[in-house]
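Subgroup meeting minutes
Present: P.N., E.W., G.H.
Scribe: E.W.

1. P.N. recapped why we're keeping a running log of single-chain structure predictions: easier to compare across weeks, and new members can see raw inputs and outputs side by side.
2. G.H. added today's entry (313 aa).
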Amino acid sequence: MASYVLKRFTGMVVVLFVVATIVFVIVRIAPGDPAAVMLGPDATPADISALRDRLGLNQPLLVQFGVYLGQILTGNLGDSIFLNMPVLTALGQRAEPTFFLTLFSILIATGIALPIGILSAYYRGSLFDQASTTLAMFAASVPSFWLALILIQVFAVRLGWFPVAGYGGPDTTLLERLHHLILPAITLGVVSSALILRFTRASMLDVLDDDYIRTARSKGMAETPVVLKHAFKNALIPILTVIGITAALLISGAIVTETVFGLPGVGNLVVSAVMRRDYPVIQGALLVVAALYVLINFAIDMLYLVIDPRVRF
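Output recorded in log:
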């Protein structure tokens, strides 16, 4: 078990280093000079050169990369060029909407996908199975922005049940802010449920015909414990994997939904930073998202040890 944990941890560190390198290179080769963008069209070449010196952009790329890695190791992601604050502070101010949006979305997605996927596998070939599979394919193909606009038109504009956009002011209570997240969470949850549903159905089909399932039924065990205690438990590892991947993708893929609903989340911060060539914010946000992605997958790998004792050996 120690070897398994060490191997997964080492892989996580390697992936983070590769991601940090890729982010650094992509940001540096992107067109546009952040110093020129920051100073505006009336800036003189001398002003631009002075700002590049202050930001360290005139140093060789290897030197910039070394400084960048050193800052990461000390927990310093740099300071935003435009916001005049540390990148971690800027990300922390935008983290709440993105965190709750991701959490609610994955809860909605699993709440839809798991029961329907289990029933679809149990009643394979039935009308319910065919209908759920068709709906899953439809949900997977629906653009999130289109579904968001439909939900806004119906539930926010016509019925007035939810706010059209925004996240509330600074004096808004947490409950009212969460009320703003219901429609965005439904949007992402419905779209994301398709993949989890299909994996749940496929994993359940793989185990429902196994010998130990037939043995449990031959002993007179009721169908509910057979399906939930024996079949679902043994089908859980691939399902957990896809749930973890979906949660990680929701963190990085909520940009469109945050834009449609006007949420001041990390996605909007990244879009603004890209438009203004704010290198530290772009690098910091992408690195944090990648770290969360890797940590979620690491946590899923650790859950394997709990679910399936065979992994320990």
